Inverse folding.
């Protein structure tokens, strides 16, 4: 089995993706081919034995084979004709924009390339924190109270201090700030608005219990252990960054069976059918014994490999149960009937 | 000014898109280049003077210049090197899947090609009728009651007869059926489930007043007239089909000024910021003096040209006010700092 790992791209989380991709080399048993998308959105085939972070930061990758996308896969030019990068399926490991906002999913779908990763709708719903809230509520999963604020709007924030301000899109804690009193507000808004023209305001609950569960559906749910992440006030960018290179197993959270089941049930409500084909990680809060969705990571750092007992078999099962696209008959029924009527 | 019209693609509405594209030739004053995407998702440059529906139904287009997408636009091979299709911007005129579900928008965004059409999020929200409902409610626009039904689910329909069953995705009335009594249910469900594994059930209100408003935002709102479409029980596929080739002005609906303003206000709530860059048509119901959203057409048939006094100037203004993508600094800050720490 050969897996192509797609990473990089035009994203604030470009570097995270590089780190995440390199981490996968240690944990995947299969043969890996690495397809790098640079900040300018050019694709390169990176030799698996030579991959390291410096290859990208130094620009050395530009000497690697240049690739382009078309029906069926990634191709490269040869002296005569072209060659195709051979793989059984791809893993979309582009974190943040391009990867998690639906762009690359769209392109892989359009060119009929099988891949593990969120499809367009799942991407849009998880990338936009307002859509995440609306969707979660609709499928019966609790979310924290929230308020959406547009840039230059004069709306007052109705959520009491302390609250947390997040750019409406993006992941990985970028642009997020906690506001404990009025004097901190303007700076936090400035930071968040650097990354999006809309921000989300949520109550900040100090010391809230957070639990992460990763999983996917492949004829049945394949769940990871539930992790209680170590955290400071909240996971900042540097902390999360380290997370993306993790390959070691973590300790399981200590939870009552009832709560564990609640968390898994919430995950399933969110996952199916929107995230079929993806291995996602959902981060939950538990408040007064109730499960709340914090966020959905449709492409978790290094695929949350460290949360699974047998990561390789999860990936293999999922790859054999990817959603198929709807079949569209190639017909010109209407045009033919008009032409027939016209006697053409 | 040269406009590239992108049409066709792998969609149940492929033929509609062909008809829609040909109709634009009559109404656009600018130079047009036609980029056709066939059912197999190969791109072709169709000579503008030779475009007619038979070119596609007969397969003759396959002799036209083959195109491929890459950074900056559509390209074709030349004896030596390659040429680029030259245009100032594109109009995404692919109705239904590929065009309205976000795939082609993603690709145009990814390759930094300026275009008129919905961006990814607007596409996902309007393509999926559940997301449309959730979003409309969130921004304060009324929607009809609804129920979502999954294939093979044993959920009972709680909405009283008569109701209307629609595939959750797709547009143009495909797969839609009205159910007036229990005996009609199973057939209507079968039809709808042919097109999607989830359907939406809504009350069917016989004789409800429907009003369509098209528009876009280009420094200010550019609205069309409000049309009261002629209709039978509901606009079926054939009727809507004809709609897509329309180029003649229609009659303005007779509405009180208050209602007209309500309709425009509802449009604006839905449009901004989700549909910036697109010319969309919103179809509303008026029930007991209140405005309800029926559906959002993010790529209306032949761009709803027949609803505008000066369609060409609307397109020109919009093309000069397309949303820009967020700027991502090309940096390897984190990786460089790690390498510095390691002394590499």
């Amino acid at each position: 089995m050969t897996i192509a790992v797609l990473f990089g791209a035009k994203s604030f989380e470009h570097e995270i993706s590089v780190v995440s991709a390199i981490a996968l080399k240690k944990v995947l048993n299969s043969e890996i081919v690495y397809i790098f998308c640079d900040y300018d959105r050019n694709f390169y085939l990176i030799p698996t034995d030579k991959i390291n972070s410096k290859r990208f930061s130094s620009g050395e990758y530009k000497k690697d084979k240049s690739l382009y996308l078309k029906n069926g896969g990634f191709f490269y030019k040869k002296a005569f004709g072209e060659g195709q990068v051979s793989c059984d399926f791809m893993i979309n490991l582009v974190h943040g924009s391009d990867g998690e906002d639906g762009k690359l999913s769209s392109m892989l779908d359009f060119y009929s390339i099988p891949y593990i990763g969120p499809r367009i709708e799942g991407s849009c719903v998880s990338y936009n924190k307002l859509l995440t809230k609306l969707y979660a509520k609709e499928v019966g999963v609790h979310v924290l109270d929230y308020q959406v604020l547009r840039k230059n709007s004069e709306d007052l924030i109705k959520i009491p201090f302390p609250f947390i301000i997040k750019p409406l899109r993006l992941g990985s804690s970028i642009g997020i700030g906690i506001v404990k009193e009025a004097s901190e507000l303007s700076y936090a808004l400035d930071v968040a608005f650097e990354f999006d023209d809309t921000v989300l305001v949520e109550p900040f609950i100090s010391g809230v219990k957070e639990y992460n569960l990763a999983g996917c559906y492949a004829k049945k749910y394949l769940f990871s252990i539930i992790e209680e992440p170590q955290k400071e006030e909240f996971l900042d960018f540097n902390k999360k960054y380290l997370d993306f290179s993790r390959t070691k197993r973590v300790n399981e959270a200590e939870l009552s069976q009832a709560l564990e089941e609640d968390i898994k049930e919430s995950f399933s409500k969110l996952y199916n059918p929107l995230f079929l084909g993806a291995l996602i990680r959902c981060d939950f809060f538990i408040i007064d014994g109730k499960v709340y969705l914090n966020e959905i990571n449709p492409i978790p750092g290094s695929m949350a490999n460290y949360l699974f007992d047998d990561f390789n078999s999860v990936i293999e099962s999922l790859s054999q149960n990817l959603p198929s696209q709807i079949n569209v008959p190639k017909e010109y029924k209407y045009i033919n009937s008009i032409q027939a009527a016209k006697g053409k």
Observations:
- DSSP finds ten helices and 17 strands in chain A.
